[in-house]
Amino acid sequence: MKHSIKKTILILSLFAILGFLIYSNTLEAPFVFDDVIDIQRNHNIRLTEFSLGQILKAGFNSYSSSRPVSYISLGLNYYFHQFNVAGYHVVNIIIHILSGILLYFFINTTLNITGYGIRDVRYAIKQSTDNENQNASGIDHPASSIQSSNPSLIAFFAALLWLVNPVHTQSITYITQRMNSMAAMFCVLSMFLYAKGRIALKPRLEHVQSEEVVKSKRQSSKDARQTSIRYHLLWFAGSALAGMLALGCKQIAGTLPFFIFIYEWYFFQNLSKDWIKQRFKYVYGVLIVFGLISFIYLGSDPWRKILSITDFANKEFTFSERLLTEFRVVIYYLGLLFYPHPSRLMVDYDYPLSHSLIDPITTLLSLSAIIGLIGLAIYIAKRERLISFCILWFFGNLMIESSIIPVAIIFEHRTYLPSMLVFLAIVMLAFRYIRQKLFVTGILCVTIIVFSIWTYQRNEVWKDSISLWSDNVEKVENKARPRINLASAFFQKGELEDALFQYSEALRIKPEYADAHYGMGLVLFAQEKIDEAIRQYLKALKIRPRYSLAHYNIGNALAKKGDLDEARIHYLEALRTKPNHAESHYGLGIVLFDMGRINEAIGHFYEALRLNPDYAEPHNNIGIILKAQGRLDEAIDHFFEAIRINPDYAKAHHNLGIAFVYKGRFDEAIKHFSEAVRINPDYAEAHNNLGVVMQEKGMLKEAAKHYAEALRINPDYTDARDNLEQISQ
Fold first, then answer.
1. How far does the chain reach from its first CA to its final CA, in angstroms?
2. Which fold has domain 564-614?
3. Euclidean distance between CA atoms 463 and 469, whole angstroms
4. Are 208 and 114 in contact, with CB atoms under 8 Å apart?
5. What percent of the chain has pLDDT over 70?
6. Is-contact 370 240, C-beta < 8 A?
């Protein structure tokens, strides 16, 4: 027993150490792709206190209600370290390691349930007997060297090959795909707990064991069975809970009830036809679960939801094209699992579509291969039950994302759950049919090392957005979307010319691409080319009339030009198409404030705060209005709130300093004026006002320095010049 515990601890430690090592270079990988929407811009996950109310709010709202468990985990990440990416990556790595460990336990348990080691013993004995008979005729055979395969060893290699596979980097390093990896983790946990519950309820199937083995073990295990059977309901309850948590992470868990049903039939009911007939009614239960999942995801108007799915809505493919293409994609996934070299991996594929079964011909070949493998699984089910189950597991768990639902054609993370048992079949066959077990072990160890190196190398590409999307663009030069993402990465780094080039290239590839025109507008606006930026935004709107962000940014551009009426119209149009856009409310508030419509302005500032409580700018502007109305204490509260949200908000520090001057609290005013100029050394107004307060306190030399600094920054600053002349007299 002690040896077994030590061995298990050693195995778990190896999984943990290796898992962290191969993902150790991802801790600073930035938010990319959907991370921006699901994490950075998702105000619902911004937990400010550790309370049940806020935790539930993070998971159960109009945006995240279909995947509450995943969003709650992201909310907890935010609570502990806000937008520090390292914390998010550590959690993702832990989820992956736990998935690998649970997979090891599940495979090991299943191998023992099926009596795999005992069957190998019988196979070895049979071969040895045959060889002895043949040797009597003078023929020498090495069959006596055949040894039984250790289920624990097979489980170890199968789970470890899955753990280190480079294909899974997208599920781990891409933070939002935690939804995928968490769902898979809870799925395999549910399967493992179900298996344990069935063992407690009814020990391993006796039909796979020899009568002598069963008889010898029956008496010794009787007491243990009587004890364990009392706890089978706890195992089943745990399995059900894990299943619900999996479904709360991502809808791919919808296949779980089906596989538990098949697992029972395969490994505990001996594929009994009578049993399946008697319990066929449970198939209706599985269908009901699928219906509920579909309702949760698609809502009461499923067709509208389907039509809104991004790639399909943008007419990237038709229903028939997607369905036909997926036959090839599924076979491509298998190829990736066995040869996952980093040169083959990318975030956004440019996968050619299938237009018919023979266009291209590989569509028909792929469909034939899929039918052949599924047919093989059915054909060998009686004598190779576990291999059959592995095949069905792979294809069955691809059904939701690789069938008729018109989501994007291909993503590597979709292999995460389906691939969990692929390597089990391979390792089993290798140990069974290759007589030199040491050779098999060596090959598997080398493969694990190679996969680990490739995983580490692939993760190097994720180190920043520019390297990630540059790699993608190199691999698919003629797809516009990766160039859009590369352009956005350059823009965020302030490399405007490179961003402009990539947006131009995207438009060369796809001239009617609204996002490319919009992104180009952002770059031109940053370059102070306001009119050119507006033209690009208008082109985006011509392609996509309900493009709310284009309206919002036209409003920003017009406001900068001083065209307040037109800016107001575009902000209102942005809100008409996207009512909950906090930034549009804020922009409209600014315009209304400049137009003198103060009450309307403050209303939009408050609405922006309602939609995004962590929005510093509306707090600052509300403070300005309240200060002008003489409500200094309320104004100070808003300035402080703006600084709490953004400690480096120089304008808020400056405005707070002015409020303290009005209150006669000069020391506090000096503190905040000083903080404003520390944050922004070229803040002329803050220098001037700091000089005024210092002059009031008799600190004339220091005051003169700040007046002079304000004039250096803005030579036409009349107040600073007058103050400096006054103090010099």
1. 93
2. 1.25.40
3. 11
4. yes
5. 86
6. no
| Helical packing angle, 582-594 and 598-611, nearest 10° | 160
Are the folds of 464-545 and 564-614 the same? yes
Residues pairing with 232 in the sheet: none
- Which of these, 18, 84, 103, 125, lies nearest to 448 by C-alpha position? 18
Which of 318, 331, 321 lies closest to 352, judged by CA? 321
Q: Is the pLDDT of residue 306 over 70?
A: no
Tokens describing residue 267? 């490994």
Q: What are the domain boundaries of the chain?
A: 2-31+83-128+149-212+221-458, 464-545, 564-614
42 torsion bin: left (phi>0), alpha (psi -120 to 50), beta (else): beta
Kindly report, residue by residue over 372-394, the tens digit of the pLDDT. Answer: 999 999 999 999 999 999 999 99
**Phi and psi at residue 80, in whole multiples of 5°?**
-85, -30
* Conformational region of residue 29, where left means phi above 0, alpha means psi within -120 to 50, and beta covers everything else: beta
Q: Is the pLDDT of residue 482 over 50?
A: yes
Asked if CATH classification 3.40.50.880 holds for the domain at 464-545, the reply, yes or no, is no
**Cα–Cα distance between 486 and 517 in angstroms, integer?**
15
Instruction: Return the residue matching tokens 């939609």.
Output: 611
SS3 state of residue 359: strand
Judge if the upstream peptide bond of residue 360 is cis by omega within 30 degrees of 0. Answer: yes
C-alpha to C-alpha distances, 400 to 297, 397, 690, nearest whole angstrom: 12, 7, 63
Listed in sequence order, the DSSP H helices in 493-545 are 496-509, 514-526, 530-543
Specify the 3-state DSSP secondary structure of 329: helix
357 three-class SS: coil
> Is the pTM of the predicted complex or chain greater than 0.70?
yes
Give residue for tokens 């195992």.
Answer: 235
